[in-house]
Amino acid sequence: MTRVNYHIRGLIKRYSSFELSIPELSLFEGEIFCILGPSGAGKSTLLRILNFLEVPEEGSITCLGKQYGPHNGSPPLEVVRKMTTVFQRPALLSESVWNNIVYPLKIRGMAINRDEVMHLASRLGISDLLRQSCTTLSGGEAQRVALARALVYKPSILLLDEPTANLDPSNIKIIEGMVQQYSREHRPTVVWVTHNHFQARRVGHRVCLMEEGRIVEVNTKDTFFENPQEQRTKDYLEGNLFY
If we measure between CA atoms, which residue out of 23, 24, 25, 43 comes closest to residue 34? Predict the structure, then answer.
């Protein structure tokens, strides 16, 4: 049986002019779950709640087998350290690429296996950059370093907030391929926020459409794109929605 790494129930997060409401949602071990939707739909807000960077007013999140929420606190450090987020704009240390990649191992007190780090760097095409300062990297190089830093300690949960939004096709291909390979080898839960329908179709196992803080549809990739069940999904995929 596939393990549920996240289960959301009755989640509500309110802002002055926006409300995120997720009645129920399960995210599974070993899946890449892609979230589509227009700007302001609540995609990044949901990702921040999944990473416990924000706390909802109502509801609960069961994460890695334990329940958390506004009334029973946030997860302990050992749970938080099993997850990581790669953002659209990587926040790297002003140090070498090597030091950035191994930083998560150091703060977790984990051994640095040089061969494993070198292998990861090779797969991401950054082996020749390891001595270089991250302040000199291009956008694509920096994002590949950010992904290496995220994967080096083998997280159980990988949250991706449009990590390829401003990258060229070559960098997109490398990052997509690395995430897919990591998914096959280590079976994490991957939640990938993207505006790109083609990307969701390439990498996703299930796909979700969000609009105005609500989930419109969640379905397997093939059903979502070939036979969407909701008219709003059909309109979105055909480019007929306007705001």
Answer: 43
- CA dihedral in degrees (185, 193, 62, 216; nearest 10)? -130
Distances (CA, A) of 189 to 63, 130, 216, 223: 11, 28, 21, 21
In a domain, 233, yes or no: yes
Pairing mode of beta strands 214-220, 206-211: antiparallel
pLDDT digits 0-9 by tens, 32-82:
999 999 999 999 999 999 999 998 999 999 999 898 988 877 888 888 999
CATH code for position 42: 3.40.50.300
Domain that holds residue 36: 4-93+156-237
CB 241 within 8 A of CB 209: no
Cα–Cα dist 142/139, whole Å: 5
Q: Is 123 among the domain residues? A: no
Report the predicted TM-score, pTM, of the whole model to 2 decimal places. Answer: 0.95
Q: What backbone phi and psi angles, to 5 degrees, belong to 232?
A: -65, -35
Overall domain count for the chain: 1
pLDDT at position 241 is: 65
User: What residue has token string 């490398």?
Assistant: 174
The residue whose two tokens read 């150091």 is 106
Is 44 buried (19+), middle (13-18) or exposed (0-12) by CB count in 10 A? middle
